[in-house]
Amino acid sequence: MAETVEKIKLLKSSPDLSTATYQIHDESHTIGNSLRWMLMKNPKVEFCGYSVPHPSENVINVRIQMYDNVSSLDALISALDELDKVCETVEDGYLASLREGKFERWVERT
Amino acid sequence: MPSETVDSRRLVGVLAERVTNVSSNDFPGHYPGEDHSWDLTNFQKNLTVKVQRLSQHSIDFDIVGVDASIANAFRRIMIAEVPTVAIEQVFVWNNNTVIVDEILAHRLGLVPLNVDPSLMIMKGPDDPPTDQNTLVFHVDITCERNPKAPKGTLNPHELYINSEFLSSHLTWTPAGEQEEVFADNKPAPTNSNIVLAKLRPGQQINMELHAVKGVGKDHAKFSPVATASYRLLPQIKIIKPIPPSKAEKFQKCFSPGVIKIDPRTQEVSVDEKNVRNDTVSREVLRHPEFAGSVELSRVRDYFLFNVESEGPYAPERILPEAIKVMREKLAVIRQAAEALRDKSTTIDSDVVMTDS
Fold first, then answer.
1. What is the value of pTM for the model shown?
2. Could you tell me if B67 and A37 are in contact, meaning their C-beta atoms sit under 8 angstroms apart?
């Protein structure tokens, strides 16, 4: 049963992939919204939007349209890389603050 | 955090009957002549993550300089996708208490367990239970009259033995290698004092419980947090001086500690340290005498997180776990996207070959 569903399916696209809709399986607003935001930070992206087509289907559709016939798949991959760096930066900052220990400690009654 | 220096573009206006400038607009092409494209070094420079308070059950921390979509992703993952271990299957051999089997099974599922989820693997729907994916607990209690009960007492704890089925009655039955794996932290409920059912003489419970690893999006019992939420930093800007006679009334419009009154001059000011405690109730906007003297807003990229942990993770461990889950998800999608790219380029070259 496993491995039969593809993680990403290409729905509608132009032959050069400058405009495409990607259906990402088993993802939700968590990835959808952050990925959309990161794609929109790319100046070569003309349009990016995502939707959850139906609440009982566990998929999101991500639509990407690029300027200058650039591949949207490359933009998608670089956005994923950059999101990973965001996560890394936030984690490093959090752990540094935790190590520094300059915060209030208190005891919660149970 | 001096409020005067906050760029007005970062502010979400809070007016009496409406909010303004809600959406972020730091995208390329939004402001003519300004470059808002993604820049990692700039992001690293502007990002501030700071832990504010920590107790054994909860943590408060600030994340400043990220978009709401990123902050929300962390929040959603903390609630729904960080795995924990909880009781999933209950085999009832005997239960003649007043609580019916399915209600009791549901209550048992919600009991937080102290098991480190990294020591277990996820059990698929068709997988057989093994020592790596299932923990077994047993309960066998019978309520009896206490022969040594003090005369005339009406207290059920004194009158009966085992008058309550508590979470401490769950006894773990190790299987396979579990004895060594869980040697330093024996699987048990985090709170041993949860009343799961009440019993009276003659009633008994005899059950076998199977605990598995799962995530909160499947069932809330797998959620590692009690709450995980964020709000935006409030900002209060006093535009017109408040007359000393109204100072106390003005102060009472906000949460305690947010507004300072100078004891000598009765001059009103905002306490920058405590402004985060304000609820932005907009009470001040209801009074005509304060009309136009104050501006309320929230800082759009200043997230004040509060995470309460219940279960195996210490509160400070939950965000790193959520980030780990997020990065795993990104890696999986990236891999699939690269596979798609490889596939589409081979199709292209195939086309070229048939043309030539």
1. 0.92
2. yes
